[in-house]
Amino acid sequence: MNNRDCTKLLLTHEDILIVTHRNPDGDTAASAAALCSALKRSGRTAWVFPNRQLSRKLMRYCGAFFAPAGFQPKYVVSVDVADEKLLCEGFAGKVDLCIDHHPSNTCYAAETFVRGERASCAEIVMELMLEINADLTKEEATLLYIGLATDTGCFQYSNTDAAAFRAAAELVRAGAENVEINTLFFRKVSEARLKLESMIYNSMRFYRNGTIAVATVTLEMLRQAGAEEDDLDDLAGLAGRCENSRVNITIREKEDGSCRVSVRSFRGVDSSAICAVFGGGGHAMAAGCTVKGSPEHVREELVRATERHWS
Amino acid sequence: MNNRDCTKLLLTHEDILIVTHRNPDGDTAASAAALCSALKRSGRTAWVFPNRQLSRKLMRYCGAFFAPAGFQPKYVVSVDVADEKLLCEGFAGKVDLCIDHHPSNTCYAAETFVRGERASCAEIVMELMLEINADLTKEEATLLYIGLATDTGCFQYSNTDAAAFRAAAELVRAGAENVEINTLFFRKVSEARLKLESMIYNSMRFYRNGTIAVATVTLEMLRQAGAEEDDLDDLAGLAGRCENSRVNITIREKEDGSCRVSVRSFRGVDSSAICAVFGGGGHAMAAGCTVKGSPEHVREELVRATERHWS
User: Fold this and answer.
1) Cα–Cα distance measured from residue B233 to residue B236, given in angstroms and rounded to the nearest whole number
2) Out of A165, A179, A199, whose CB is closest to B168?
3) Overall average pLDDT of the B148-177 stretch
4) Domain with residues A192-309, CATH architecture
5) Which of A84, A287, B42, B296 is most buried per CB count within 10 Å?
6) Complex prediction ipTM
7) Which fold has domain A3-186?
């Protein structure tokens, strides 16, 4: 299937519902809203499934595209959803067309359009939208920029290739409010988040000449900072800011007396092997596990397991 | 003067010395090194003036292009230097060609090539280099990426336009090590810097419902963190992370019993007017002043002046 085939599929259907994945990120939410806008402009009835898990920031840009109560779709399109298990409840077995950029896509839909080389689903949707209407509105460009910028960590992640930069150039040319989006999604945080970061950086401990960095987030810290769910984005990334660290461990205390552990590592250390010691798993560069005990106890256990794995 | 005229000027001269500005940033240092590389590849003798103020990170990429002792230049080119006063000592009145992107350039050189619409000098130098050699080496692309990425705050600042993104696409296509540069310049910091950020976030005070945010950096904090000069980049930007703040004030204690104050504000508040109260100055959105007294005293004074200016 190419861009034209996929566009034809979309345009030969009516009453389209676009669905996002659970724990929605900027790419799934904003790509869905942008595609919805383009279909509406081409004269179709189209809505986005009201995924109530959207963050406040994403709601502000995508909420206007949520389907009204009682909308009966005749065609269901998923965007940025690699696996049926990640769909919001009730959509398994019901997706007519899946548009995605994950190479791991399980082809669960009746028809699948995957371009696994793309950094974001927004780039694929942008090309489809240019087939549908030949142009982008300022609002559409801003939505696609949200998808592209969030999935590339504002052009810092290793998936940022020449195509991602070319797409960004096209979106900014079309009027995307890139500065506002950057400020809202990457720069500004709540006072609670700043307090929490202060405590997390203060909690950091280093081992093996700084090559192992461990950050701890206790329930007491969350309470003291007054942090809410929206303040907890990518806490596991903070430990990775240390210049000498090769293994970054983030320990988050849970209510039930255990800790959720996230391990991220650079080449040469297998995060999933370290987490497997505690019954967890994941990938070589990012893995997780849950360990019983206090944060201090869990820290000792994790550092010991990391040192044993390393040597 | 267009790209071709500027290239011709460069190629009709020999023994070229490229000079950078004082307090060198990534754009001046890496643009100079990249241009030097292209001139060398075209058969010219060219070197970069050894500006000893370069940070360790920049030295790692640009140090190899520093002129050897005793090099006698016949043609001096400045890169990213808006004003003669910003040149390293000894170059006033001696610049044959100035290549720059600052609209405020004072035309101090014998010939001047300014493109004031560009976000970075690296983009201008890239175009000249493509005229000189028709291609970029991987090393040259990486150097130009350093200039472009540092001057746009890794594509977050308001100067990031479609042309900047198009240049980034071209540089990544040419092999620029963008991920390594992003990690080194934007992501990784020293343990001392993390400790210092922890203390700065902890020091923050908010006024007028969080619309005024004040960060304090004391000598004791710098000592406790073990911070060196390289750890102090853009401290004035930290206060601006608070989502509700419209005026961000950073107070840095000095050895002589006074404090250096940096004020940054959004539309509607004039930073330079606030700083003028204390004999300082600057622009509407970023200004500075020096105020006698302890950090606590200076904080009170600044908050009072800001509230008075606002109402």
Assistant:
1) 8
2) A165
3) 96
4) Roll (3.10)
5) A287
6) 0.91
7) inorganic pyrophosphatase (n-terminal core) (3.90.1640)
